[in-house]
Amino acid sequence: MTALYAPSSLLDICLAKLSRCIRLHYRQLSRLPEKLTDALLYKMVSHNTLNDNVLARSLTLDREELLLYTCTNIRRAVLLMIGRNCPRLKVLVLQNCKQVVNKVVRSILQGCGELRVLRLDGCKNVTDGAFLPRPFEMSLGLLSLEVLSLSRCPQITDESILCILKACSRLRSIDLSYCRHITDSLVGEVLTCIGGNLQTLDVSFCAGVTDEAFMALTGGSTPSLVEVGVGGCRISDEAVYRIAAASPLLESIDLRWCNHVTDDGV
């Protein structure tokens, strides 16, 4: 009889056991090969059992990617180590990590000068202060940033995004969905400053976004734009026409709950 499921390898079984152990000490982890520690890290993330010791052991000089989804058990003191220990980090996800505050974000931006992707979705304690310039501080991580997601960060306003736009000439994807303080003026600045490089823009359910945000768009002004999210925004057919005319490569546009968009706009 043919087996329906291939048996797990010994490595998978060991990782599964270790990932459920909440008392792994740093000394024990230091004996593991780096690749095994990395595999353990993401196994524990998937089980929501990641602890300070495993994360601290994983923060090495050569690390280029760190994906932490809903890792609410990690202390801020350990998160502050990311910027100090991982200068070559290129991709960082801290999605729904409620303990992330401005100090953590600033330390990452100062220490991770090669950062390409930063996702802080659902980090509700992050405010404009995480991105505003300070004396004697340089946010090197903004200089090479290409993808930024601040979805569901309710305290973010136009002010911080304007500062980010000044530093991020390479930005090609920005997600500000559910950021209730984002306005037409800010969206217009995004399209003006980085419209030539922009590939994805999501301002879904930003109550302050209307047709006015897209009035400056002209034919070909966003030549690389592929995806747009404006679901829940107070836009009409006029905004849809302008987005389509300015974006020859447009593949999808989210119009959920856009009650003023008619069949003609679609």
Percentage of residues assigned to helices:
25-40%
What is the strand arrangement across the widest sheet? 1-2-3-4-5-6-7-8
Number of helices: 10
Q: What is the radius of gyration? A: 21 Å
Distance linking N and C termini: 54 Å
- The dominant shape is elongated
Could you describe the largest sheet, including whether it forms a barrel? 8 strands, parallel
Write the element-wise H/E pattern from the N-terminal end onward: HHHHEHHEHEEHEHEEHE
The overall average pLDDT, rounded, is 90
Structural class: alpha/beta
**Approximately what portion of the residues adopt beta-strand conformation?**
5-15%
In the predicted model, the low-confidence regions spanning at least 5 consecutive residues are 1-5
Number of strands: 8
Kindly describe this structure.
The protein is α/β, with parallel strands linked by helices. The chain is built from 10 helices and 8 strands. The chain has helices at 10-19, 26-29, 34-46, 52-58, 76-79, 81-85, 102-111, 158-167, 184-194, 237-246, and strands spanning 65-67, 91-93, 117-119, 147-149, 173-175, 200-202, 227-229, 252-254. Strands 1-2-3-4-5-6-7-8 form an 8-stranded parallel beta sheet, with no helix packed on it. Strand 5, helix 9 (184-194) and strand 6 form a beta-alpha-beta unit. Helix 1 crosses helix 3 (34-46) and helix 8 (158-167) packs parallel to helix 9 (184-194). The longest helix has 13 residues, at 34-46. The protein starts with 9 loop residues before the first helix and ends in a 12-residue tail after the last strand. Mean pLDDT is 90; it is low at 1-5.
